[in-house]
């Protein structure tokens, strides 16, 4: 993966086929091979000389504007899918951007499990069947705009990247989850797919939320206050380190490290005007230390992105972290809770495709496929089951607990044997192994010699051993019925 920092000035490759004394420049999002979102108004923007007249022509449309304060923007009318088209931009100079398609555009973001490319990344395990997947990646109508890894104290307007066409040569550097999602969605829709890839390993959700989005939330404003205090304290810390001739590690400038709201400024802000259909998100590992706050952090980030994009409550599809020996169940529960707090979202469960010994499981194909199912259901209104069973309510009947679920699909099933992974407790909250059986669309749970049960948990382990699915082949999310 390519890495930049905020002090590195890029020579922007905008994929222009004709440039004459260039004064009018489109944002790098509008470069050769771009995909524009179908069915909605599409903003197109860039920079130029103040007062300069700008004409944008695309797919039979012609829009005119003037540059103000060095910036220009036009809005193309909603279009059906198709292409290839040429985007012609005329000012004092004339630019032509080629091989542009109209289709579906998704943001692909998160941390290392989203960032993980299809090709090798030692010492991480190889992606399952990666060479076969690479060799079969002949999808010229799938394209990716890669946002380089960087951070900034202030919002950036253009990251200076370019679009790339999917091929066996290019795909090995693409996000494995992002590629599998795009491929499976393309197969279902048969329209061009564009991915805005912007992910960084090891990043908590705070790094992806705007400063105002954190400041304006009563429970989260302390995150910004603590960062500001660290900034103010740094000069004195550095001076003391130099004065005392200290040995060991020097204090780090918080502004030069990955920091609160820094990735939002550098890696989300440049994308904000771009017309999109929705977001896929795989993150959570770096927030397991504060899982109790994570539902607030993630739901607030979703609200923040939607507010900043200004195109309504677009679908936000996220992946529940996979089983791993050091990944506590509380973070999965936090992600499940987030689902109940946010509108037009889906959570992809991965209990059956983790790796107990590695936080980066190699089985990424099911993750991409399940994301595509959720997209088809939420974004494109297909009448399909897109989620595994989700715990809804608990019913106590004597010494038996009856669990009710949503997303039962064609019915509940125990994969490969009797149901497992359930524990049960009385008021003392001493959880013991339970017996569970499927009864219609419910699960009945009892405990041997246990009287007056009050709570049940499912998959409540770092590496849950579970097998509750719906008959559509999708696994149930781990959960707990008790609130403390």
List keywords for this structure.
disordered N terminus; globular; 3 domains; Rossmann fold; alpha+beta; 484 residues
Description:
This protein has 3 domains: 337 residues, SGNH hydrolase (Rossmann fold); 35 residues, no CATH class; 91 residues, no CATH class. Helices cover 21% and strands 26% of the residues. The protein is built from 9 helices and 24 strands. A hairpin with a 3-residue loop joins β7 and β8. The two termini are 41 Å apart. The N terminus is likely disordered.
Describe the structure concisely.
This protein is an alpha+beta fold and 484 residues long. 21% of the residues lie in helices and 26% in strands. Helix 3 crosses helix 9 and helix 7 packs across helix 8.
Overall number of structural domains = 3
Task: Name the helicity range.
Answer: 10-25%
The CATH homology group name of the largest domain: SGNH hydrolase
The third-level CATH topology of the largest domain is Rossmann fold
Q: How far apart are the termini?
A: 41 Å
| Number of contiguous helices | 9
Rounded mean pLDDT is 94
Query: Structural class of the helices, strands and pairings?
Result: alpha+beta
Q: Give the number of DSSP strands.
A: 24
**What integer value in Å does the Rg equal?**
25 Å
Main sheet, how many strands, which sense, barrel?
Answer: 11 strands, mixed
Level-2 CATH architecture of the largest domain: 3-Layer(aba) Sandwich
